[in-house]
Amino acid sequence: MSEDSKRAGDAEYAAFVERCWAPQLRVATLLVGDRHRAEELLQDSLVKLYPRWRRVSRGGSPDAYLRRMLVNGRISRWRRRRREHLVAEPPDSPMPAVNVESADLLRRALRALPPRQRAIVVLRHYADLSERDVAQTLGCSVGTVKSQNARALKKLRDLLTPVDEGART
User: Fold this and answer.
1) What angle is formed at CA 122 by the lines to CA 116 and CA 127, rounded to 5 degrees?
2) One cellular component GO annotation, for this chain's record (predicted)?
């Protein structure tokens, strides 16, 4: 490909991005429900579209192609976030439900954990990393992640479970 045709393709792509930004952002916002996450989804899709631009632009409808990329990107993010981890036995007791008002209580309980346990809980349960990924990130063994996670969750349950006043006699 000559330098002139590459520049022409880049200019064509830039014009496409300018033209489609607002309508595609509306689509992305409806998909994710939040303008900031929608902009991120649209930017990610446009970055992935750039190397395919010549083929897509010759193929007919780059707008439809980008819309499909937005939908697929949204589905991929949803699946990554909703990844379930199967276990042989259900936990003894579930973590208490946390509503918006008790978010501060949860943050205080997390701060009460030692730093390594806090990091493990946040990486495992908030960032949804696997035990292996957490171990790699923290430079420890998977066994350490498992044991520290269990201790941290027990401590969080103790801190977040209301004490029954009648049981304290």
Assistant:
1) 135
2) DNA-directed RNA polymerase complex
